Structures are given as structure tokens and as C-alpha cells.
């Protein structure tokens, strides 16, 4: 029997979050999650989905990526990494242009579109690991959006892990797997989703205690209120006694406290209705 995954949706859009926000990205949303964060806006992925083979998933991703150039088209470090990668490919005809997205010294290139595994929680399905490996082998820049409640050590090291640390307002703070911090690399990212004053203070304390800024980029994302359609009955409640924080107040606190974090808005919710799927 071929390897399979239960997939909720696969679609091409713009990356709405992370340090790569705004770039074209193919999202592979996997079904199922064992957390019920108070702010979850994709509760439909808890149960909706259909089984697909890894081969079919990769084929669909290639189909959606077909219009993009095969060689890397973006170099965050100013072009030197991309130029050297292209020269290396030109000098070795046996290599595929698909595999030229790689790290070179301090420069690296990204093949577009990006491919992100999200959910739900992708790491609940063991076959997410071979899928990421296959996509990396194809030369894609692979991102993994994960809750931080599952072991990330077995994820292909070529993939870029965007890992939550669940704040108290999520209702799931006890699910953080702190051992994961030892496995993060410089191109990974840690995300705090902030909905309350208590979330902010907790996040600030974790950044200091674990010296997180020395590990990888840090993200702070404000909790946008759920629409009535997104308010699934299974979600946890924000713990009693917490004080909501506004988007502006969060930004101003980050500035005032000189936190080494990136404030991020969810671009897809600015461009499209916040409860629209497939964007």
C-alpha cells in the first residue's frame, strides 16, 4: 500500500506570516490536530480531509508550481548566494536546476513558490516526514508550521520549521515541548501568538530565560478575533482573569521593551476576508 496522508486542502497563495511573508507559497493543509487553542481559525481541518498518496501530493504541488522558474529567484542576503548557486549549476550539467536552492556560506537562495505544510498539526501524521524529505529532494523551499507540542527532531534539516510556543491565553501552554528548543537551527523561527497582556509578559520572560533570540528569528503575532463561523465549540476558552491586548498596544509594547522580535500581521486576513478558505 502506498504511503498516504489525510489532506484538507492544497492551494497556491501568498505566505501570510513568518519572515517570508508576501512570497508565493503552496500550502499543504493536513487534517487533524490534538490541540484546541482558543484562537484557532482552522477548526475545519480538525476532521475534514481525504486520503492521498505522497506521489499524488507531490504531483499536485508540481502542477501548481509549474508556472514559476525552475531556478532560485530570491536571495535574502543580497544576491551573492544565488549567483554562486547559479554558477555552480552551470559548471555541473549533471545537477538539476531544481536542486539549486541551497545554503552557500552566508548567502542562500529560495526556490519559488515556497511549500508549507500546515494544519491542523502536520506532525500528527508520520508520513509528513517523508513528504517533506521528498519535497526537499525536488529542490523546493519547505516550511513546516507546527504547534510545538510534537518532536521536531526528525524533520528533514533542509526544511524550515516555524514552531509555536503556546502562550497562556491559548489554553494549551502546558503542551509546549521544551526539548524542541535544542533542535532549532538558525533558519527556523519561533512564533508567539499574543492575545492578552499575560501572553505578552509570558513571552517576554521565555525570550529572556531561554535566550531565544540567539537561536533563531522570533515572531509575535496578534490574535485577530474569530468570526462567528470560526468559533468552534471544541476550542479552549481564554483563562479567566486575563486582559485582552490590542494590536496597537502589542506593537507599542514591543517597541518600548526593545524586544528582538518581528511583529507580524496575517497578510492573508488583510487581503481576503478573515474566514475565507484556500487563501
Question: What do these coordinates show?
Answer:
The chain is of the alpha/beta class. It contains 6 helices and 11 strands. It has helices at about 55-65, 80-90, 130-135, 195-210, 245-255, 265-270; strands at about 5-15, 25-30, 50-55, 105, 105-110, 115-120, 140-145, 160-165, 190-195, 220, 260-265. A 9-stranded mixed β-sheet has the order 3-1-2-6-7-8-9-10-11, with helices on one face. A two-stranded antiparallel sheet has the order 4-5. It is globular and about 50 Å long.
* Number of H- or I-type helical stretches: 6
CATH architecture: Alpha-Beta Barrel
CATH class: Alpha Beta
**Global structural class:** alpha/beta
Characterize the main sheet: 9 strands, mixed
Based on Cα principal axes, name the global outline.
Answer: globular
Number of strands: 11
Topology pattern, helix = H, strand = E: EEEHHEEEHEEEHEHEH
Helix content: 10-25%
What is the number of independent domains?
1
pLDDT average, as an integer? Answer: 88
Unreliable runs: 77-107
What value does the Rg take, in angstroms? 19 Å
> Which superfamily, in CATH terms, is the homologous superfamily?
Aldolase class I
Give the termini distance in whole angstroms.
Answer: 32 Å
CATH topology label: TIM Barrel
Strand order of the largest sheet: 3-1-2-6-7-8-9-10-11
Approximately what portion of the residues adopt beta-strand conformation? 15-25%
